[in-house]
Amino acid sequence: MKKIHPIEALIEQGEHQQLDFKFEVSDSKKIARTLSAFANTDGGRLLIGVKDNGNISGVRSEEEYYMIEAASKMYTRPEVPFEATRWEVNGKTVLEVYIAPSPDKPHTAPDKDDKFKAYIRVADENILANEVLVLAWQKKHKPDGTLLKISKPVERLFAYLDEHSHINISQFCRIGRINYYTAKNIISDLLAINALQYIVIDKHILYQRVPA
Fold it and tell me: Which intervals hold domain Schlafen AlbA-2 (predicted)?
């Protein structure tokens, strides 16, 4: 029985939250968004020289590696480190780029208007992180930690989540009887101390309790 190549085994999985295929890399800024999204979420691998349908086209030069390096060094803040491995698969070269989940998030990359934004990886797409997630990540780095008061809005939030699977910010404003600024701060505090987690449904970022 023919032994399957590790890269072919990866390709068989199809694209998902931790795996992305790229026929080529022609735009370092665009690929920087993928580096940001992987680093801000669960990490992942880019296979360069692989078409969307999983066919191996191969990379033609060292240029692909230099484009990734430029994306990392010039277009991610803070810089997203990566590991690159060249594989020969049936006479063609595939560049595997591994990005680890980062403890230093948020990592940002330029959007279409060259404004640096944070991205997250959802299924096989990169989507913008909202300001609540960015605030929560920043709070995790605070040397004195995050102090949370169990206020009436927090009590109402947990009572709501006892009955519902998730909540968005506007729902929390309504049931907590608070403004957006206060809601954003409470949710980001709860995310920072791992009392809540985020989920994404139809590209909308929602919040739920962390399963016990």
Answer: 15-128
pLDDT digits (tens, 9 = 90+) for 39-50: 999 999 999 999
- Are the C-beta atoms of residues 96 and 47 closer than 8 Å to each other? yes
Examine the domain organization and report whether 53 and 137 are in the same domain: no
Q: Do 10 and 66 sit in the same domain of this protein?
A: yes
Residue 8 pLDDT more than 90?
A: yes
Q: How confident is the model at residue 52 (pLDDT cuts 50, 70, 90)?
A: very high
Question: Which residue range forms the structural domain that includes residue 163?
Answer: 132-209
Whole-number Å distance between alpha carbons of 138 and 189: 10
In CATH, what number is assigned to the domain containing residue 70?
3.30.950.30
CA gap 170, 166 in Å, rounded: 12
What's the pLDDT band for 148 if we cut at 50, 70, 90?
low
